[in-house]
Specification:
- It is a single chain.
- The protein has two domains: 76 residues, Ubiquitin-like (UB roll) (Roll); 70 residues, DNA polymerase, domain 1 (Orthogonal Bundle).
- The longest helix has 17 residues.
- A three-stranded antiparallel β-sheet has the order 2-1-3, covered by helices on one side.
- 40% of the residues lie in helices and 6% in strands.
- The protein has 164 residues and is mainly alpha-helical.
- The protein binds FE2/S2 (inorganic) cluster (2 copies).
- One FE2/S2 (inorganic) cluster binds next to loops.
Length: 164
């Protein structure tokens, strides 16, 4: 099994491999439970556990996935969680900074999933207009209804990410 949690380097990758190796390889453990229960990476949230809220969104190979619907044993590419999004030096990712600047959260429960989905939104070219952003982000629910601020954050980060 070749899994690496980006941002954590080999240490976290090794911990994940060890956590999985201790289990029956046929065990049907999800990526979300692996991250939260076996690695202590609790940034990815368990909202519905049924693929309906987006709180568990992470990036696998740069593409967003719902970790509650993803079997850990099926993962073959690097996983990026909210813990691994900032640079190794500790500076925030432009999307994290934009969420702060645009006041794009209240309780924060949905925010890790929103941010990772938003990163994919920009990287996959779906941030061209407000309507495109809303459509792409529609799978990430926010009970605090921070949606207008989230769209503003995606647009702010898009500009910064395009300059990188
Ligand atoms: Fe995965 Fe809700 S916890 S979509
Ligand atoms: Fe509270 Fe989104 S900020 S659920």
């Amino acid at each position: 099994m070749n899994i690496l949690i980006t941002g954590g380097g080999g240490f976290l990758g090794s911990r994940l491999a060890q956590a999985l190796a201790r289990r029956d390889p046929k065990a049907r453990i999800t990526l979300l439970d692996t991250l939260r229960e076996h690695l202590g990476l609790t940034g990815s949230k368990k909202g519905c556990d049924h693929g309906q809220c987006g709180a568990c969104t992470v990036l696998v190979g740069g593409r967003r996935v719902l970790s509650c619907l993803t079997l850990a044993a099926s993962v073959r590419e690097p996983v990026t969680t909210i813990e691994g999004l900032a640079s190794q030096e500790g500076s925030l990712h432009p999307m994290q900074q934009a969420f702060i600047d645009q006041d794009a959260f209240q309780c924060g429960y949905c925010t890790p999933g929103q941010i990772l989905s938003a990163v994919a939104c920009v990287n996959e070219g779906h941030a061209g207009s407000d309507a495109d952003i809303r459509e792409y982000m529609s799978g990430n629910l926010c009970r605090c209804a921070a949606y207008p601020h989230i769209v503003a954050a995606v647009k702010q980060a898009r500009s910064a990410m395009e300059k990188e």
